What does this fold into?
Amino acid sequence: MPGMHETILRLNKVLCDLDTFDPEAMRGAFAEEGLTIRAAAELLGAVDVLPSDRQEDMQAFLDSIPPACAAAALAAVRSALDRSLRVQVTWQPASAFEMRRESATG
It folds into this structure.
């Protein structure tokens, strides 16, 4: 997906940066019940970080994520933020959409 790296870097800057992570602000941003993956990405600046000629492709990609995968991703982020935990987003190409949640202990 064109622009995926820039988008992931932006998401990680907001959701897990050691200097700027603000779980309270992020909880507020993710509080909207009808929030979509696309709206969340746009809210966090993960689409605007791309050149204007690639933003539409990213929006279309985000809109194509199956609702169950989107709901799982949003639930995982909300759960982490509720506990003031940082969230690291990674991208692993696959033949279909999938959602993985890993947690670190210790």
